[in-house]
Amino acid sequence: RQKIEEKDMLDEIKVPIEDLLLDPNNPRFTRDFEEYSDIPDKEIESKQNEVLKKFDKRPSFNIEDVTNIEDLYESMSKIGYVPIDRIVVRTIKDSSKYIVLEGNRRISTIKKILEDYNRQQSPFDKLEKRRQLEPIKSSFNSVTCMLLKTEGLSTDEIAHKVSIIMGLRHHGSLLEWDPLPKAFNIYKVHK
């Protein structure tokens, strides 16, 4: 196989938070191979509320659950968004929006903080918490992302590139996936 260089795959761009869509096909949601269904690009935007609900800021029975954003929510509510790791996105066919391939926990956290702030929901139902967020709130407006180059590629070629990036990021590094999502991603790379 040809060696894939990051510079050949990714460009840096700045994206408004409202143009970043969470990935309903994220392998971290895989709990059973039989239940998996691939959501096409044209349906991704309509699935955003459903996907955002999968990320929870309250601890579940499994505190290490990869959809638990309690730690990020607490941290970002105090210091804002700090871009110490890359958010990876790709364009969505026939749309001006981008789907988040890598960084769904961080982007969902930003979206939940802004939603709670705008709706004056806990903890932002208290004036003190609202005042604490105001100086850092602008860090949530737009995010520097790495755009996966997909122009001219088939759906299968795009899926293969995405699986490679996801595999590099989550197999023994960063926030490691549970065994089933990890196996599912490996399966997708080699099918």
Question: How would you sum up this structure, described in words?
Answer:
With 191 residues, the chain is an alpha/beta fold. It contains eight helices and five strands, in the order H-E-E-H-H-H-E-E-H-H-E-H-H. The protein has a five-stranded mixed β-sheet. A hairpin with a 6-residue loop joins strand 3 and strand 4 (98-102). The model has no long low-confidence stretch (mean pLDDT 83).
Shape: globular
Helix content: 25-40%
> Strand sequence of the main sheet, in spatial order?
1-5-3-4-2
Number of helices: 8
Radius of gyration: 17 Å
Order of SSEs:
HEEHHHEEHHEHH
**Quick check: average pLDDT?**
83
- Beta content comes to 5-15%
Number of strands: 5
* Beginning-to-end CA distance, first to last residue: 15 Å
The major pleated sheet works out as: 5 strands, mixed
- Main structural class: alpha/beta
Keywords:
191 residues, five-stranded mixed β-sheet, alpha/beta, globular
Topology summary:
Layout: H1 6-9, E1 10-16, E2 20-21, H2 41-44, H3 48-54, H4 70-79, E3 87-91, E4 98-102, H5 104-118, H6 127-133, E5 142-148, H7 155-170, H8 179-190
Parallel strand pairs: 2-4, 3-5
Antiparallel strand pairs: 1-5, 3-4
Helix pairs in contact: 4-5, 7-8
